[in-house]
Design goal:
A three-stranded antiparallel sheet has the order 2-1-3. Strands 4-5 form a two-stranded antiparallel sheet. The chain has helices at 9-17, 57-68, 113-127, and strands at residues 24-29, 32-42, 51-53, 70-77, 86-93. By secondary structure, it is α+β, with helices and mostly antiparallel strands. The protein is globular, with a radius of gyration of 16 Å. It contains three helices and five strands, in the order H-E-E-E-H-E-E-H.
Length: 129
């Protein structure tokens, strides 16, 4: 079954620290690093909240793109073994030109698109926001 991939606790916490303040259906409690479903779409990233919004990877990727001008590209690479695909990523500011270009980070060896995206989100939050 296909489902939205929720960001890890570490990435969700970084996003909160960097200003992510979008309502989500999932949240992490500071004491429990497991995302819990919230029936109402509430914003958990308030200053006095002990909860941390747990966005889907695609929501956080969109926030980085639309609010911070940071683009993430996940690339598929055909491995030697056709049954073992490999993914890498690049992270950059848009528009790309001499003044605006900030970083491009290539990684390889991720077995799934979602693993590559999670690491790319973490890289962008740590280095570009």
């Amino acid at each position: 079954m296909i489902h939205e991939e929720i960001c890890t606790y570490e990435v969700a916490k970084l996003a909160k620290e960097k200003g992510f303040n979008v309502p989500t259906h999932f949240a992490y409690n500071e004491n429990c690093r497991r995302a819990m479903y919230m029936e109402l779409c509430l914003n958990r990233n308030t200053k006095d909240s002990r909860s941390i919004s747990a966005p889907s990877q695609s929501l956080l990727q969109r926030w980085l793109r639309e609010e911070k001008g940071i683009h993430i590209s996940i690339n598929y690479q055909q491995g030697v073994d056709e049954e073992c695909p490999s993914y890498d990523y690049s992270v950059y500011r848009w528009p790309i030109n001499t003044e605006a270009f900030v970083s491009e980070e290539w990684k390889d060896g991720y077995s799934t698109y979602e693993l590559a995206l999670e690491d790319a989100l973490k890289y962008a939050l740590e280095n570009l926001v």
